[in-house]
Each structure stands twice: as structure tokens, then as C-alpha cells.
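Regression report. Comparing outputs from two consecutive submissions.

Submission 1:
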Amino acid sequence: MEIAVGYEPTVAEVLTALRANGRSARIRLVAGGWITVVAGLFLEVAAVAELGTPAVLLGTLFLLLGGFYLLVAAGMENLATREAARLCVPTTFAAGPDRYRFELSSGAGEGHWGLTKVIVSAECWTLAVANRVSLVVPKRVLDTTERAAFDAFLAGRDRKLVKTV
């Protein structure tokens, strides 16, 4: 498999890919935040019912921790917007059987498929190394033959390194 293509992803494509990639983490943070806030409120109410200072302190700690979780979840959207600005530039992408190369306006990079996680969505492939998105390749930029070859290549990879969202 040898694929070489030049393209510029749209903000909508990149944001959709990044949101799909982080959806489960965001859900866990929001759920954990609300559960922790409710537990904190319960402890605060219980402290009023004569459980004493430790319950007040623990309730306050839970309220602060839950608020922190919710702030982090809200900050994920801001992070996605900043990442989209970094990735929505003219890009060249060349993929071979062992390695891939890409060039953005911010610089060039090269990766080894064995170290790269590929997240497959309906609109694009997202390449991530060490949990950092390196590249978003929209499916629209490949013709049918190249798309089929790339999908077949991904199907033959370790399932831990290919995730469908």
C-alpha cells in the first residue's frame, strides 16, 4: 500500500473527529463530576443533621472535586478548538506499509504504524501517537481504490491500535 495525498481538512471535519475521539472521556468526567457533587451535597446535608465537622470537610472536598471534574470536561471543548486550529492547514500525507509521513505548516513528521493508534469515524481517520492527535485524514481526499486499500490495511492491524467510533 502506497498512498500520497495533499489536502486541507475543514474545521468541521477536525472538530467532529476530535469530539468523537473524546466523547467517552468527556462522558466519564461529566458523570463522575455530577456524582461527586451529589455526594458532596449529601454529606453537607448530613453534617447539618449533627454528623459533625468531618462530614462538612469531606462534603466540601467532594463539592470542589466534582466542580473540578466538570471544569475539565468543559475545557475539553476549548482544547478541541485549539487542536482544530493546529490541524486545519494544508497537509500532505504519504503512507506506506511500515511508516507514514506528513507535513503541516507547523512542521513535518513521520510515524511508525506500530506506535500509532488510528481512530476510524464515518468522515475521517485520526492518527494519534501517545494519546496526542498527529493528523486527521478526511476520507473524501482518497479515491475509492485508495480508501479500500487503506481500510484493508487497517483491518490487518492489531485491533488495539484501530478504534472505530
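Submission 2:
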Amino acid sequence: MSSIDLQKWANIATIIGTVIALVGIGVPVMIWRKSHSSKTGTSEEKSSSNKTSEDKLSYEKALAELSKVDADLPHKLRLFINRCKREGFFEDVKKTIMIKAEVPGIPAVNFGTIGIPDGKLDTNYIAESGDKVGNRDIAVKYLQGIANLLEGAIIDSSGKPWTWRVRLHGDLPPLSKLLEKEDEWLELMKETRSAFLNMARLRTQNS
């Protein structure tokens, strides 16, 4: 099976995981990351399909860059992201690697941005997602949960909500520190996503 075929199956697995999460709490499934209903596809979909190999290479290159910080970090992160994808999360690779989840009615929620090549974790943006879904406390609880996993960490809420993030001794925490407690982190992500989805469901019912 080619690398493109593998990527297609990975995308399908991510979509299925997201749908299962939505249906499990009774949220109507109306939003998809990509449309697969058209045989010909839109120009945007064709462009996305043509970039599959390029995106894959970007992901691999981003992982490789992390080896400059820690030789074991690319492998550990790959395993963690694979676990996240099985739970319905997905990675968004640009100049960084972001771990996100779909929530109806708002842009995908970012649960953490991994800096390339410094390997530090930035947890900004999620407080703004909390505002957009109508409950900032969901995001604050997530940030506090992250801080609790890192001895000496605090929530920096000195700026606008989109800048709120966890800091460790005044800096962004190393991803490697959080991966030492990846089970707890993934569970926290799942609980937070459920809270976002529940809030989205309530908004749908009240609209």
C-alpha cells in the first residue's frame, strides 16, 4: 500500500473517530473536515488531494526537526499523536504541529501547539475557543489541568484570552515533560473535548 493510500486511511480513521465522539453525546453530525460526497470534487478538494504527499513530508520533516532538541522526541510524539488520532483528534501541520479536535459551530479547538524545532508546548488559543463556544471555564480547566501535570507551572492570563497559556518557570514548557504523563494529558484532552461538545449541543438545542 502506498504512502498516499496510508494517508487516506489515516484521514478516514480521524473522521470516524470524530463522528463517534459527536454521536456519543447526541450532537447532530453536520460538520466534516472534508467533503467526500462528490466524485469529481471541488478545486479546493483537488488541491488538498494533490498536496497529500507534500503534507506528509512536512509532518515528517517537522518531526525530524525535533530531534535537534531530543533524539527520542520525534518517535515519542509520533506515538502520542497516533493515540490522539485514534480518539478522534487530528494534527494540523504548518510551521508548527497542532493537535486539534472538531467542535460544531466553532473553528477546530487547538489543544496544544508544538514548536519546531524547539519542542516546546504552547497552549494558547483554547481560552478563545471557550469564549466562542460560550464557556471560557472549560478552557481554563484544561489549562489548569496542564499546569497540574507540570510541577511549578502556572496559567499566564495576563493578556487577551487567545494569549492565555501555561508557563513553566516563565517559559513555555518542554513537550517532553508533558509526554512523561501522556496518559493523563490525553485523558484531560478527551474530557475537555467532551465539555466543548456538550456546550455545542446545548447551544444547538437553544438556538
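Expected: both submissions complete independently.
Actual: both completed, but the second showed a warning that disappeared on reload.
Relevant detail on submission 2: Residues 3-206 form one domain.
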